[in-house]
Write a structure and sequence with these properties.
Elements (H helix, E strand, L loop, with lengths): L7 H28 L13 H16 L1 E6 L4 E2 L2 E2 L10 H6 L5 E5 L16 H13 L3 E5 L28 H15 L3 E2 L2 E2 L2 E4 L18 H18 L5 E5 L22 E7 L4 H22 L2 E8 L8 H10 L6 E4 L18 H9 L3 E2 L1 H7 L5
The chain binds beta-D-mannopyranose.
């Protein structure tokens, strides 16, 4: 048999080909690795199966696009409030696109006081039912907590320093522990088919801004971290709640801000987030979205954590094509697991369109885009194991 002896140009070609093959092999290995789910180290070593399933589900979602969420979607909207008499689940989002959001935000502010209603007048009994319904239908639940100021008795926005008072034997520590116990009691009632409903818990958000009593200038970074860790320990260890994933979400980063300044540690945070609003200056907004989501993505990848756009929107949506032209191009390939638009309270304060609003068609187009995942979309991805 004749042996084939390549000439020099064939040798060069073969060498190049093998390098090319090797590179493409390594790249394909890397992309397979990126899509492989590795069992995470969750804050809660005893995380419920439901919480573990939610984490995996968010990972899968982030590989396909991002889950679209809305705060208080089914509690009220522009011109209506949930009531048993309505007989069906109202939602401004459903009204516009014929599907529900994939993520449902609720706020438990004033639960700590033992009140019947939250700070926006949603009865906690209604909230419980809406959370159970959303979960039953395959939706994902995220909770924020605009709790009152324990020192002054004012609201979350009362900047009287208070964090020190609820730590390490401070004068209001017992009161704070009672507040957390009330939260725990309510969270324990969120069950479906005898399983605890998994919850994305996002307390003490926007701490790098100074508008909340737990924010910049109103407490030190080290006290903030202590407060976060204590709260986790109370919920997880004292009250034995194992269905929470903990989400850290600073506000839009100002030039001098460091994303991790208030970060309580890898062992106390499951998912990284960021809140950025468009205050009617879309150029500024886009700059922040690109920069800040980039920062969050890098840090999250380094820490092997999921990340999300935990609050956003433009009040009243006065900018034409805001969803499709201002927002979508900059989040399309960001890798976020979800995005949460803020609440629809009234014509002067809403972040999602409603029927007859000018941005209705823009939002309908947004819904058709490849990466925007609503309730039907995430249910089609993989059936959650209820
Ligand atoms: C804020 C505003 C307030 C509301 C609070 C908690 O951003 O929407 O009106 O009380 O969130 O939902």
């Amino acid at each position: 048999m004749r042996t084939f002896i390549p000439n020099t140009s064939t040798q060069l070609f073969l060498r190049r080909l093998s390098v090319l093959l090797m590179v493409s092999f390594l790249t394909s290995c890397k992309s397979t690795l990126n899509t492989l789910y590795k069992t995470p180290r969750l804050v809660d070593k005893k995380a419920s199966p439901s919480a573990q399933v939610l984490h995996k589900r968010l990972f899968d979602i982030s590989k396909k696009g991002f889950a679209v969420g809305h705060q208080d979607d089914t509690s009220y909207g522009v011109g209506w409030r949930h009531s048993e008499d309505l007989g069906e689940t109202y939602s401004d989002v459903y009204d516009v696109i014929g599907d529900y959001p994939a993520v449902y935000g609720f706020d438990i502010g004033h639960l700590e006081l033992g009140n019947e209603n939250n700070l926006d007048n949603v009865p906690f009994d209604t909230m419980r039912q809406l959370i159970i319904d959303a979960h039953k239908n395959g939706g994902i639940i995220t909770l924020s907590w605009h709790l009152d100021n324990p020192t002054s008795g004012g609201t979350s926005w009362d900047q009287t320093p208070a964090v020190k008072d609820i730590l390490d034997g401070g004068i209001h520590q017992e009161k704070y522990e009672l507040w957390v116990a009330r939260v725990a009691d309510f969270l324990k009632t969120l069950n479906y088919n005898t399983q605890p409903i998994p919850l994305l818990f996002r307390p003490f958000h926007e701490m790098n801004g100074s508008w909340f009593w737990w924010g910049e200038g109103n407490c030190s970074a080290s006290d903030y971290k202590k407060l976060w860790r204590n709260t986790v320990r109370l919920l997880r260890d004292k009250h034995q709640l194992h269905n929470l994933l903990y989400v850290y979400s600073p506000n839009k980063l100002n030039r001098e801000d460091k994303y991790l300044k208030y970060f309580p540690g890898n062992r106390y945070v499951d998912i990284l987030g960021i809140d950025i609003y468009d205050f009617k200056n879309s150029r500024d907004y886009i700059t922040s979205v690109v920069n800040d989501l980039g920062v969050v993505k890098d840090i999250a990848n380094r820490k092997k954590k999921l990340y999300a756009f935990t609050e956003t929107g433009i009040e009243k949506i006065p900018t034409p094509n805001w969803f499709t032209r201002v927002l979508y191009p900059y989040i399309e390939d960001s890798g976020i697991a979800w995005i949460l638009f803020w609440r629809n309270d009234r014509p002067e304060h809403h972040y999602m369109p409603y029927k007859t609003h000018e941005s209705e068609n823009d939002f309908k187009e947004f819904e058709t885009f490849a990466k925007t995942l609503f309730l039907k979309d995430i249910n089609n991805l993989n059936q959650p194991n209820h």
